[in-house]
Amino acid sequence: MSSDALSNLLHEERRFPPSDEFAAEAVATSELYDAAAEDRLGFWEDQARALHWETDWEQALDWQPPFAKWFVGGKLNVAVNCVDRHVDAGNGDRVALHWQGDPVDDKRTITYRDLQKLVNQTANALTELGVEAGDPVAVYMPMIPETIATLLACARIGAPHTVVFAGFSADALASRIRDADARVVVTADGQYRRGEAAPLKPNVDDAVAKCPDVRNVLVVRRTGSDVTWNEDRDLWWHEVVDRQPEEHEAQAFDSEHPLFILYTSGTTAKPKGILHTTGGYLTQVAYTHRNVFDLKPESDVYWCAADVGWVTGHSYIVYGPLANGATSVMYEGVPHPGDKDRWWKLIAEHKVSILYTAPTTIRTYMKWGPEPLQEHDLSSLRVLGSVGEPINPEAWMWYREHVGGDKTPIVDTWWQTETGAIMISPLPGVTATKPGSAMRPLPGISAEVVDEEGKPVPNGGGGYLVLTEPWPSMLRGIWGDDERYKETYWSRFEDMYFAGDGAKKDEDGDLWLLGRVDDVMNVSGHRISTTEVESALVSHPKVAEAAVVGANDPTTGQGIVAFVILRGSAAEGETLVKDLRDHVAKEIGPIAKPRQILVVAELPKTRSGKIMRRLLRDVAEHREVGDVTTLADPTVMNLIGEGLDKSKGDEG
Ligand code: PRX
User: Fold this and answer.
1) Domain for residue 587, yes or no?
2) Spatial contact of 350 and 107, defined as CB atoms under 8 Å apart
3) 2 Cβ inside 6 Å of ligand 1
4) Ligand 1 site-directed mutation target among 389, 434, 466, most atoms within 8 Å of CB
């Protein structure tokens, strides 16, 4: 168990009652629990009715474990739900996006009417490029309004998008384009990060060189940097999209039509393409966004500070807020030490009332001290959300005190790329919160903590988090790999979804998430597989073998620590560690760069040859090494300890 998890347990007794500010809706919101308990499927049908359906469904759920179909026979268009119906309802002048670029003077205000025009033109452009319903489109873009328009345009024409985070390498992009079989890629010349322009198009050029089936690359001009151009393939957005008609006739798609594929790390080196579909997904993201954040679309200004490249961006920057007609802030940049008060200025400027971010960001600001916040008026904030990793009670308290003025409820939301939407979270005004606990499954969601045998643990016990009933926004599978879908999520326990997370039920039955129980690391809220980093390392000519672990890190949650054995003829050399870190960045992306690389002579293995990561984690976290009796050669750990002493100062 991590030290954060331990400290969580010590803080269990602290509790914050629901705030009176939410009293007006508290009764209605708490009734959701009763309604869902009484008739779960009827409850979800009620939530689905909040959307606009062209054709009603005939059946709420068709469950052939582990394959689900929700709102069977229903037809709807996601883009119509996220844009057109708000315009039709007379809210065309409402701001959809207050966009702020990384350069201070780059700002745009986009109303729902503006967004409608942009989405329609983009849909027409994609159609002109030959994209039809069912054709996957790859998206490798910065945090700009065109990215949202691209996603909605794909949804509008029924083309599933596969967004690849713009921090991933060309190789990672290429493997995703190939796996999804995308023939069109949408990108930009570059993006701004930490005050500087960073190129994107060259990565796409390198990736597409390995993807012969890609016929077009559509490029937004963002930074104006020089790009190499392939006349047969590349098209400028402003030349193709801007000249399109502003009208587009939308067609309704089946509730189970694929909406997107999003790749996430699993326990093997190959990322999994998580498939989400239309009706159930949109129902649950809209429902959770409305209730978990107590959204008032007419008055709230909502800011989810994630990137569209991750599931949080898909569900809570794009689909949830827009389905609800919310006004959002969209920010291109990321927090950095050179500009510590940018975030808080943005909150004060737009009077942001709901903020949704990750614990790693909160811990970064904790490290920098509260002064930058104190210079700005943050009193507009009324709900604070946390996502992506366990939030330690210290960060939770700091968030509440310094960001939330000691009054704002915090919703710690547990979910995953696979779940599509929030599953476990307090509800503001209804749930008494405990710093560090995600509390209870939402109305309509059934979760349990079970032991090795799959039996529910009693209050006070710990085990594995499982979901015991299908839910509307659940993944429908792994793209092209039903066997892996069954094996990964449905084989560990019978008829239960295995989330891969450890959890504890406290004496009141409230849930505490304790981090991954598999070989997946969580670095700054991003999922990275140990095996993926290991295979990147062994693809370097000097590396014979590698083992990677996630070690506790006070800011990023976990940090990547790698142990490598060099090939016989390779010498250690001064730049080796840097070369290896750069190599991993090239293979996967900078987020996967190990914090520390140790060159060792041996790795601890069991007699059957399995690497004992537990022992390596002890070394990486500077702890006394645990039980070594199952090692084939117990003396190996002494050698590794010596390697550790030698490598001090290598931490990147
Ligand atoms: O380990 C859990 C952690 O993040 C994993 C899911 O990662 P990803 O699919 O990238 O989605 C992140 C954004 C939803 C989970 O298996 N996780 C996510 N939220 C929490 C969390 N761990 C503890 N508390 C949370 N609130």
Assistant:
1) yes
2) no
3) no
4) 389
